Amino acid sequence: MKKISGLLLMVVFSTFIIQAQDRVIHGVVHTLDSIPLIGVGIKIQSTKQTVLTDSLGNFTAFCNKKDKLKLKANGFYNQNVKIPENVKIVAINMKLKPGEKQRDYAIGYGYVSDQDKTGPVSSLDVKESDYAKYNNVYDIIIGMGAQVRNGEIILRGSRSFQGSSAALIVVDGTIADYEYLKSLSPIEIKRIDILKDAASSVYGSRGANGVVLIETLKGK
């Protein structure tokens, strides 16, 4: 009799939990604003269940009225996202951790598809170079073999994508504009990597003109 009562209690409790999760959230996870992330683990706080993003970065989760999602992927910063009651669709942008090892994690674990990736063609870090001797970031990058035209860094000659030949700037895992680059002091920099060709394809179409990766001392 006790076993039957216990079984009934479990059924009632399970039914209550299922009814409580009466909210469906649809979402997409990407990085650098536009690159979908595949297989990212998304844990729902209320149920402790984990769902994975598909090949387009999409996911579906059953949540409470007020719930929280915890995203985790190797090579990226963990992220907690609160879901307000009136929200049904969410778009989440995960930040890639700076450093070549973290990019290798992102690709190796399948979050970003890039089978032909090679290493950076050029790099400098504080162990190899005293950045304090440079006047600005542009002088450092020119010293690494890049060109600067009209305030833009050119890594792939005159080839152009969407009307521009400027390289993509990524600072501490986040896309930055050239105005921010101008304000960055050399003494704030820990490491600079320059990526071209297959090495830059991990950054999608935005990396078509090459990528300048900058890791600051604060970024660590």
**CATH fold-level topology of the largest domain:** Ferric Hydroxamate Uptake Protein, Chain A, domain 1
Report the CATH architecture of the largest domain. Answer: Beta Complex
How many β-strand runs? Answer: 15
Percent helix, as a range, is: 10-25%
Overall SS class: alpha+beta
Distance between the termini: 60 Å
What order do the helices and strands follow?
A: HEEEEEEEEHEHEEEEHEE
**Beta fraction of the residues?**
25-35%
- Mean pLDDT over all positions: 78
Number of domains: 2
Q: Over all CA atoms, what is the radius of gyration?
A: 22 Å
Q: What sort of overall outline do the alpha carbons produce when their principal axes are compared? A: elongated
CATH-assigned homologous superfamily of the largest domain: TonB-dependent receptor, plug domain
Main pleated-sheet profile? 5 strands, mixed
Q: So how many helices?
A: 4
Quaternary structure classification: single chain
* CATH class descriptor name of the largest domain: Mainly Beta
Provide the spatial order of strands within the biggest beta sheet: 9-14-15-12-13
Low-confidence stretches: 2-20, 115-120
